[in-house]
Specification:
Distance between the termini: 46 Å
Order of helices and strands: HEEEHEHEHHHHHHH
Structural class: alpha/beta
Low-confidence stretches: none
Oligomer: single chain
Number of strands: 5
Mean pLDDT: 84
Length: 265
């Protein structure tokens, strides 16, 4: 991997490479360049995960012609596909080196924080939504029980914006979630738990199920489960699998005539 990155930089195949460098015992995102080529020896991989593709999006917004290389897990590649679809990155300007993150302990170097997800506690399982639950299991609760469980989750929100800020496919220049009339700050629990419902709608056809939002959430809200549900609806209605390719999303089609035909649920 280090040899490949060094070669790309020396041959000007990429102008910068986004990867991880060990700093004070922890692998942190780092921008490797030709001018500091010796730093390549400190390029590492591990269980730590960051939105390298989100960093690439912000860099490309200021320097659209820059050629960017980056380490990618399966989730990073799905995010890149979504960013290509929404014209946030140009595929011709991106080079990737894949990191093996197969979720099996039998596979060498299969490192990822979701290989061993954090287990929910007794109270959360009893009155809330287990983060590791499948959508079908969550929908097996009665409507009243399901409502109460989600309210338990949403009322924990402190509106820190961690889920939005870490999300690799959140790229709006103006975020509607910052509007004070939508949900005010300084009130815990929030008077109206609408923050995550609005964001869930925005995640339809975008969420690539990387789980970074849950990693960042200090209240351990079952965000991944919520977004899985909206993506399941997109799949059922439009037969669209988010992030599996750079095909056009049903939510960014342009033109006067609608050509997509929703399927009955």
């Amino acid at each position: 991997m280090q040899e490949q990155v060094r070669e790309w930089l020396e041959q000007d195949r990429v102008d910068i490479f986004l990867g991880y460098k060990m700093l004070q015992g922890h692998p942190l995102p780092h921008c490797f360049t030709k001018e500091n080529i010796d730093e390549i020896d400190k390029l590492v991989v591990g269980k730590a995960r960051y939105s390298l593709e989100k960093m690439a999006t912000k860099i490309a917004a200021k320097h659209p012609d820059l050629k960017i290389g980056l380490l990618t897990r399966d989730c990073n590649q799905r995010a890149l596909n979504v960013l290509y679809v929404w014209n946030q990155l140009k595929p011709d300007n991106i080079e990737t080196i894949s990191v093996n993150c197969c979720p099996s302990k039998l596979k060498e170097h299969g490192d990822c924080s979701y290989l061993e997800p954090e287990q929910a506690g007794f109270l959360k399982k009893m009155v809330g939504m287990d983060n590791n639950m499948e959508v079908e299991a969550a929908e097996a609760f009665s409507q009243e029980d399901r409502f109460n469980r989600w309210m338990y989750e949403f009322q924990k929100c402190i509106k820190c914006y961690g889920c939005r800020d870490i999300c690799p496919v959140c790229f709006c220049k103006e975020c509607s979630l910052e509007h004070s009339d939508l949900i005010a700050t300084g009130t815990i629990p929030p008077e109206f738990p609408i923050f995550h419902l609005v964001r869930a709608v925005h995640m339809a056809g975008r969420c690539i199920d990387c789980g970074l939002c849950e990693d960042a959430c200090p209240a351990y809200i079952s965000l991944r489960l919520l977004y899985r549900k909206v993506n399941e609806t997109v799949s059922d209605v439009f037969d669209y699998k988010t992030g599996t390719s750079a095909d056009q999303s049903p939510f960014n089609m342009l033109g006067d005539e609608v050509t997509l035909e929703p399927k009955p649920i």
